[in-house]
Amino acid sequence: MKSQKARVFIVDDHPLVREWLTNLIDQQIGLVVCGEADNTAQALQAISTSKPEVAVVDLALMGGSGLELIKDLRKTCPDTDVIVLSMHDELLYAERAFRAGARGYVMKGEATRKIIQAIRQVLDGKRYISDRAAAAMAEKLVEGQPVSDSPVTLLSDRELEVFELLGQGQETRQIAESLHVSAKTVQAFCARIKEKLKLETERELIREAVRWQANQPTA
Predict the structure, then answer these.
(1) What residues are paired with 81 via a beta bridge?
(2) Residue 9: how many CA atoms within 13 Å on its side-chain side?
(3) What is the pLDDT of residue 213?
């Protein structure tokens, strides 16, 4: 039986964002924040225990990928709906988030009311995405093209994660430790990334990853 107030769990590695979201959500009728986490392992354990109705998840987290967390939550906590709140370009990441199992996608730069609207819409059994992203996704899907024009859309979720970590200056060993895989696995990912992005050398790959990462918003 659900509580009188719908419980919301927050997953974000920025304390100020968690504090802002908690204050915002707790002021709303029928909503209450029941917990928070700043990394994927802590989030998965706490959400599995508390079983909130909604989890608001950032994609850039300590100790792992938000996309992988969403996939894990879909398996272990199927009754918890996930809304992504992220600075990442929704035209590149929203489609991935929905494939992973999210029910909503909100950009951090959007108006505060959009966040609450997304939570309530998802609680009503619907999906939430901005009109801009929905229109772009619909048009591209009809045309059979990627939602974003960036060649990075060709990368799988795991390849994109490796590409991001390369752009952040991590070496093969560090990436392997972050993703809990072998160095050879990371090297295989890098080889596929180079092939998809039409890059010849490791140096070109790193340069492109750093350039791409530098153009990503931070929050």
Answers:
(1) 54
(2) 28
(3) 80
9, containing H or E segment: strand 6-11
Q: Which amino acid makes up residue 188?
A: A
- Residue owning tokens 């987290």: 61
- Two tokens, residue 88: 């990442």
Torsion of CA 94, 98, 102, 108, to 10 degrees: 10
Q: How far apart are CA 56 and CA 35, in angstroms?
A: 11
DSSP string, 18-65: HHHHHHHHHTSTTEEEEEEESBHHHHHHHHHHH--SEEEE-SEEBTEE
What distance in Å separates the CA atoms of residue 188 and residue 100, rounded to the nearest whole number?
A: 23
Give the number of C-alpha atoms closer than 13 A to the C-alpha of residue 96, restricted to the C-beta side: 24
**Distance between CA atoms of residues 80 and 139, nearest Å:** 30
The CA distance from 125 to 49, in Å, is 22
Query: For 19-29, what is each residue's pLDDT tens digit?
Result: 999 999 999 99
Give per-residue pLDDT as tens, 84-140. 998 877 777 888 899 999 999 998 877 688 999 999 999 999 999 877 777 766 766
Whose tokens are 């490796």? That residue is 162
What's the predicted TM-score (pTM) here? 0.76
Q: Spell out the domains of the chain, with CATH numbers in brackets.
A: 6-140 (3.40.50.2300), 151-214 (1.10.10.10)
